[in-house]
Each structure stands twice: as C-alpha cells, then as structure tokens.
Amino acid sequence: MAEMGLRRTALYDDHVQLGAKLVEFGGWEMPLSYGEGTVAEHKACREGAVVFDVSHLGTVALRGPDSHELLQRTLTNDLAKVRPGRAQYTHLLDDQGSVVDDIIVWWRGDDVFDVMPNASNTDSVTSAIGGEDVTEQRSILAVQGPDARRLLGQLSPQAAAVKRFHVETVEINGADVVVAGTGYTGEDGLELAIPNDEASMILEQLLEAGVTPAGLGARDTLRLEAGLPLHGHELGDGITPLQAGLSWVVGWDKPEFLGREALLTERSTGPSRVLTGFVSEGRQPLRDHAVISKDGDVVGETTSGNFSPMRSCGIALGFVKTSSGVMIGDSLEIDIRGRVREASVVPLPFWPQRS
C-alpha cells in the first residue's frame, strides 16, 4: 500500500514489475532507480536512450480566447517569440521577483495551452492563471538521449520527428498523444502526454525497442551535469531569474508580468549573488547546503551537489556573492559537514564539458 497521502501514477504497477526502488517525491510515490542503479541509468541516457515516468509533474489546461493574454501578463517569458505548436520555458514570480515555479508552456493550438508546473507547485500555478488541473487524466513519459528519436521511431515515426521545443498531437496505438520536444537531461529527447489507459502499453513498447527505464535519481544527476536548475534548490523563495543566470527567460519588453518591477530594479543594480559551478578532484560527491569560502571568507553556499558519472568527480551548483570577485578558474573551499574540500570554479554546463 502507498504511504498515507502519497499519490501514484498510472504506471505504478509497471514500476513494481520492473523492480523499481520507490520513494516519496513531491507527494508522489515515484521510482528512484531500477535494478542496475542510478549511475548505469545516467550513462544510458548520455550514450543511448532512457524513459522516465514524469507523470507527477503538473498539467494545467488553459483554454479560451483570453488564455494568451492571461499568460502574457502573468508569466515572465514572451509568447510573442513563439507561435501555436511550440513549447516555451518560463517563470511564475511573486511580487519580490522570487521564482514561485519554473514552467514549460505547451502552446498546442489557437487558444489551447497546457501549462506544465513542478509537482508540488500545481496549486500555486492554478491559483495564478486559473485553468483546469488535468494532471491525473494523463501520463507523461520522457524519452531522452542520443538514440531517443531513433528508438521512439519504431513506435511512431511522426512522434520521433517532432522538433525541439515544438508540440504536436500524433496517433500511437490508436490514441492521441501530445508530443513535445522537451526534456530535463541536457540530451535530445521528447516528452509524451498519453491517455492513462494507453501508457502501460507504450512504456512496454519503448522498453522492447531498447529504451532503458530510468528513475528520479538519474534525472537529478543528469540535470545537474547539464547545469539545469531545480526548484527548491536553484530556484525558489528569495531567488530571482537574474540570480539564477536566467535573464533570457524574462520578456523585458512586455509591459506587464508578475514581479516585473522587482526584476527591473535588480537589473539596474545587478544581482547580489550569481549561480556558479564547482568541480572537485576525486570521486567523492559534493553536497548541497555546504559553505563556500575564498581565502577564509564565506562567499556563498552550494544548492545542489553530487557525483558526476561522466566527469568522474564531484560537482555542485551554488550561489556566490558578486562582491566576492570569484571568477572561472578560482580555487575555493567547500565545507561539507566539517570536512573541507578544494573545488574549482568552472563554466556551465558540467557536461558536455566546456574548455
């Protein structure tokens, strides 16, 4: 039985049959990893193709002639940059400019939008934009990796042909599946919104085609290697898009969106801290909430840290005071529960590795 209050996706029984290690995440009981473990799943995504069940992520359906204008005056990015049939990354802010949630908007057609918040933030997004929470009416499979399109093409060439940051509805097994060229791994791939009663069959067909099942453990190490922010770590209360290095998510020319005035003020003065990447020698992982020091002075704190399977070393993201003068190539000290590690400041992403 599920722990009290935990929700399960429509693919829960499939995860059990595949031997998944199940954990709580965002109020859902989700697979952390399968038999070969997180590192093997991580490398399978970088070198082949994996499939994640990300049905716990929210879907808020927004329909009607006022939908476009509502999203324009609420979210940070500018929908005028795209058109129907495209996906766009954007933020929902509070009045202080803090990131309430980072979101993908699937603009499926005229006046037809699927707004995709993080699992625990669906209610906040619905409160801001209205719409209908249809999260439990569909499953979402994320097929990611350099072989993702080739292997998905065995099920549906049309689905495999959906371009990056495009959205199309295609037929798979007689079901209408919304396919978006999006993901959270740093690799090419697609995300499929599938009617619940077809999700198990499509998952089975993907596995038969040679796609490896992967859990949230690999999803986290993959996004960290790719330098992608995670809400609650690199985004959240007190963290603005400018501090997170995401000014490109802001439609500065729009006359209105939540948090605009606070961001304009911060842009004029410059952010007080910036998101920075760190690597350490050896295979010992770096960790979050570790104090970062330079020449004995505290200059920041890590927000995410782990072992990088591709670089075979510890990596971390963290915020560093802009007044500290920290630059690429500097050597800093990271205090992990009283154990100090030397770490170098590096450009993002960690992978593919930039010289």
TrEMBL record:
Reactions this protein catalyses: N(6)-[(R)-S(8)-aminomethyldihydrolipoyl]-L-lysyl-[protein] + (6S)-5,6,7,8-tetrahydrofolate = N(6)-[(R)-dihydrolipoyl]-L-lysyl-[protein] + (6R)-5,10-methylene-5,6,7,8-tetrahydrofolate + NH4(+)
- Aminomethyltransferase C-terminal domain ranges (all copies): 273-351
Tagged with keyword Transmembrane helix: no
Record GO terms (molecular function): aminomethyltransferase activity; transaminase activity
EC number(s) recorded for this UniProt protein: 2.1.2.10
In terms of Gene3D superfamilies, this protein maps to: Probable tRNA modification gtpase trme, domain 1
Output one GO BP term.
Answer: glycine catabolic process
Q: Which Pfam families match?
A: GCV_T, GCV_T_C
Q: Name one GO cellular component term.
A: cytosol
Record key words, sorted:
Aminotransferase, Transferase
Q: Where would I find the GCVT N-terminal domain in this sequence?
A: 11-254
The family note in this entry says: Belongs to the GcvT family.
Protein name as catalogued: aminomethyltransferase
